[in-house]
Amino acid sequence: MGVIIALVVSFGALIIGFLGEGGHVGALISWTPALIVFGGTIGSSMLAFPVSDLKKIGRIMKSGLLYEQADLNQLVAYFYELSVKSKKDGLLSLESEVALNPDADPFLKKGIQSLVDGESHESISDSLGNEIDRIEERHKIGAGIFNSAGGTAPTMGIVGTVLGLVHVLEGLAEADMSSLGKSIASAFLATLYGLASANLIFLPIGNRLKINNQKELLEKELILEGILLLEKRVSPKTIQEKLMGFLNGDEKDEKNGSNTTVAKEVVSAT
How does it sit in the membrane (predicted)? Predict the structure, then answer.
């Protein structure tokens, strides 16, 4: 929803501002400059990146734009509970966490299953670490494609404008003033399409993928650290303290605030 709102606000501001200057929407629509800009940008991306990467762009956009980071405070609390349970009933008791949570994060389920299967510390670290590397590579590819398109689109817009002006100047001697203005306006639409698509679509999406990459990697690294600490049979309190290191200042304050609230409830109850 945030992505949709952002697109509506940005393009809506441009169109409403144009209408406020006395323009009309029809003047902003032309298929020839759109073909030059977007066709040239797509062709450039196909040359810059393997087709196998471009085929993944839909999945990359879905996973990157719609990604929502899990509540890290809840993850810390979850690993605390897992530690208490494993200390009491053994690591095999965690198998129910995999079976009873079909909608849980596959990365988390894989880590818990590795514990239940009795895999070594090094094996778990290598397996989950490799998966984190693949996630990072996926985001890098997606961000790279959109950043490349964001750099190409304005250039293709200028190319489209130059092509349009070449056509205008070629027929300048025979053109009348009424058609001349429309031809020049159509030529500059290519620049508008290039700049608008780069700064309102391609570059923002590329930047969003980078930010979500950092969030997802932090979440997965916290899970990996929690799994490895469970494998070492570290105490629940130590696991909580170590995983708290993944939280930023606001999240730590929120965690401390919730702990304080719980403590007050206990005191008042007694």
Answer: Multi-pass membrane protein
Residue-number span of the structural domain to which 189 is assigned? 32-250
- Compute how many other C-beta atoms are within 10 angstroms of the C-beta atom of residue 102: 7
Between the CA of residue 245 and those of 42, 43, 73, 219, 227, what are the distances in Å?
A: 43, 45, 11, 12, 15
Q: What is the pLDDT of residues 151-205, one digit of tens each?
A: 999 999 999 999 988 888 777 666 666 677 777 888 889 999 999 999 998 999 8
Report the distance separating Cα 257 and Cα 269, nearest Å.
Answer: 18
Residue 69 half-sphere exposure toward CB, CA atoms < 13 A: 19
Degrees, nearest 5: CA angle 4-133-44: 55
- Counting the structural domains of the chain, the total is 1
Residue 264 lies in a domain: no
* CA 239 to centroid of chain Cα atoms: 29
Q: Supply 173's token pair.
A: 């001697």
